[in-house]
Amino acid sequence: MPTWHVTDMLQLYHWEPNANSGKPMLALAEKGVPYESHYLDLLRFDPHQAAYLAINPDGTIPAMVHGDLVLTESTPMMEYVDEAFDGPPLKPSSPVDRWRMRWWMRFFDAYFGPSLSMIGWSVFVGPAARQRDPEELRAAIDRIPLEARRIAWRKAVFNEFSPAELDESRRRVLWATGILEEHLAKHEWIAGSTYSLGDINGFNLGYALPLSQPAVCNDEKTPRIMEWLRRIFERPATRETWAKGRTPLAARVSMLERQSPAPT
Ligand SMILES: N[C@@H](CCC(=O)N[C@@H](CS)C(=O)NCC(=O)O)C(=O)O
User: Fold this and answer.
1) Which of 30, 92, 110, 139 is the one with CA 20 to 30 A from 82?
2) Is 82 exposed, middle or buried (0-12, 13-18, 19+ CB in 10 A)?
3) pLDDT tier at 244 (50, 70, 90 boundaries)?
4) Which neighbouring-strand residues pair with 65?
5) What tens digit of pLDDT does each residue of 20-71 get?
6) pLDDT category, 2, cuts 50, 70, 90?
7) CA 203, 205, 175: angle at the middle one, nearest 5?
8) What is the pLDDT of residue 76?
9) Nearest CA to 107 among 173, 161, 47, 26?
């Protein structure tokens, strides 16, 4: 039996405001929708505990419960949030801008995100989890429902990402950062002239790029990305959402604080 009770209040099961968890958190904040937050610590393997598996048997986060609906997959979840609740629209009205927004969300989710994630797991998640007893870790990994996630955890924890796969991820991050910079030279926001779910998606993936990839993303090489990240960070909903972070992971966002006034 699940130990959590579904009430009328929207329930969100998430980790830090970061990557997939941060997407519905930020979309809900932009819409002004209150929700009950259930923080699951990924590094303590909380998403693989029985109480959460009763909600999402895949053991991945985020998951959202709205009435008797259980929603997974962060990007369509954001679309649900935008359409199911009042508040400012987070999708552009023109078909071409919607296409552009979805093109980029697909690119972020299928290409840019997984490459950045592999690097992040090898330098952050693996070393952070490795502090624990190896046998306990092995047992925790064996309990993960999805094979793809078990493999990612094993590689991160036991330092088994190969140099070739890490090199390929670095190559993809460099290329993807370049085309994002070119895109932002032509468009103010991901979809075009309005802030949208595409920006929320991209910010969650890329807010720490200047820190994690300093040689690739910086004020000299990628000024448009830096300006775009700073503009998103200045939004009240972004500040409110990142203030919910509990670890140094989310605190990295403070590097986007402007040192001088915004350009006019
Ligand atoms: N495509 C899914 C991916 C969800 C996902 O894999 N989330 C990661 C955290 S960002 C997770 O739950 N990992 C659990 C694990 O690795 O055990 C989405 O966008 O929601």
Assistant:
1) 110
2) buried
3) very high
4) 11, 70
5) 999 999 999 999 999 999 999 999 999 999 999 999 999 999 999 999 999 9
6) very low
7) 105
8) 98
9) 173
User: CA-to-CA distance for 234 and 203, rounded, in angstroms?
Assistant: 12
Query: SS3 breakdown of the chain: % helix, strand, coil, rounded to 5?
Result: 60, 5, 35
- Half-sphere exposure (Cβ direction) of 201: Cα atoms closer than 13 Å: 29
Contact assessment for residue 177 and residue 218, using Cβ atoms and an 8 Å cutoff: no
Amino acid at 179: I
| Alpha-carbon span 119 to 215, nearest angstrom | 14
Tokens of 34: 């209150």
pLDDT of residue 131: 84
What is the whole-number distance in angstroms between the Cα of residue 230 and the centre of ligand 1?
A: 26
Residues pairing with 69 in the sheet: 66
- Tell how far the Cα of 264 is from the centroid of ligand 1, in angstroms: 39
Which residue has its alpha carbon closest to ligand 1 atom 9?
A: 61
